[in-house]
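Task: sequence design from structure.
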């Protein structure tokens, strides 16, 4: 210290080596110092780093876990971990990276992540995987030094639980009225789109009646009208005459239901059941995506010859089917996937001089 006294007990061992030592030298830095010497071992000069607070090199301030919390909005299966850095993580000393280890019983450990040491005072790592939700997992952080000796400075353990969060809200709900039927489609919720975690297994579809064009609140509560495993639904049960609203929520594998989408409203629900359609219309195929077969629905203002052609994304004709003479009104036909591979296709319905094209997805 400032008076020249050693900070450890008198005559305590700092470094123990056999044989003679010569040419000792003590060099002080900000928080520690180095004792250097020559001895009988081959090579040049050897040194022992001494820390003012904790003793000699190897007894350092290890990393310390400060929190293990559930990763928000991930659908479950992950936690976020934060820790204070090892005191040897300062870009000039031994620590080069941190290894994150996980265990369920604190006896068998698995490394699940690696983080480079960059001289920060603290670190945070998101979406560290767990093995199951709602089950306590233990973690520790190992500060790993470089060089031949590969020093390791492990933290104490920390624990936390990943939670099976409800699914996020489906996106871009759209409702299309064709005849007296209403075709709903939407985009699966994040992180299902391009994400690694997605346990959404289905959707619930709700509808409510509005009191009129100027109504600001529903005249009755939401009614569950059906469920779907795919991001589309056909509503054939609308009572005509009053404005209607639809909303959709997602379900996960554990049966948890997420929040509903914003309502999609249609003012004109006048029924045309029993009427001959005034024009040629092709409705979305249901289901979509599909595996073995899907249903095509189209409306004809008069009797016509109808043909269905299917094209792949490169524009190649992969399937063609003549439906023969079809009567006026609404018509339905099953379209099998046959030998089509999984992927995106476009089907074109030709009725006389009228043509309509829609997209469908085959999923094996």
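Answer:
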């Amino acid at each position: 210290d400032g008076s020249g006294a050693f900070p450890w007990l008198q005559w305590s061992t700092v470094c123990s080596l056999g044989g003679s030592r010569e040419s000792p030298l003590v060099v002080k830095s900000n928080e520690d110092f180095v004792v250097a010497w020559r001895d009988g071992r081959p090579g040049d000069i050897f040194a022992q780093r001494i820390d003012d607070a904790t003793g000699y090199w190897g007894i350092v301030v290890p990393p310390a876990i400060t929190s293990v919390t559930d990763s928000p909005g991930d659908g479950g299966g992950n936690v976020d971990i934060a820790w204070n850095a090892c005191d040897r993580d300062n870009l000039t000393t031994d620590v080069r990276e941190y290894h994150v280890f996980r265990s369920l019983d604190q006896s068998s450990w698995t490394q699940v992540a690696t983080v480079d040491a960059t001289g920060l005072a603290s670190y945070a790592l998101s979406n560290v995987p767990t093995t199951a939700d709602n089950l306590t997992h233990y973690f520790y952080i190992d500060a790993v030094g470089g060089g031949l000796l590969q020093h390791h400075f492990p933290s104490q353990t920390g624990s936390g639980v990943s939670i099976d969060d409800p699914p996020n809200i489906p996106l871009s709900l759209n409702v299309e009225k064709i005849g007296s039927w209403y075709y709903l489609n939407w985009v699966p919720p994040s992180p299902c789109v391009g994400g690694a975690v997605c346990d959404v297994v289905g959707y619930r579809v709700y509808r409510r009646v509005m009191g009129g064009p100027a109504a600001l609140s529903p005249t009755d509560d939401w009614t569950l009208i059906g469920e779907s495993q795919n991001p589309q639904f056909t509503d054939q049960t609308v009572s005509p005459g009053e404005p209607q609203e639809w909303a959709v929520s997602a379900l996960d594998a554990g049966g948890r239901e997420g929040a509903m989408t914003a309502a999609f409203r249609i003012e004109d629900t006048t029924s045309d059941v029993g009427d001959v359609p005034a024009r040629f219309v092709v409705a979305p195929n249901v289901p979509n995506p599909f595996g073995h077969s899907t249903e095509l629905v189209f409306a004809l203002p008069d009797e016509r010859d109808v043909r269905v052609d299917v094209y792949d994304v490169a524009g190649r004709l992969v399937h063609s089917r003549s439906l023969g003479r079809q009567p006026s009104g609404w018509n339905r036909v099953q379209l099998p996937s046959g030998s089509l591979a999984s992927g995106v296709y476009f089907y074109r319905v030709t009725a006389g001089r009228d043509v309509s094209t829609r997209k469908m997805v085959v999923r094996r």
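Confidence is low (pLDDT under 50) at residues 1-13, 51-58, 193-197, 214-219.
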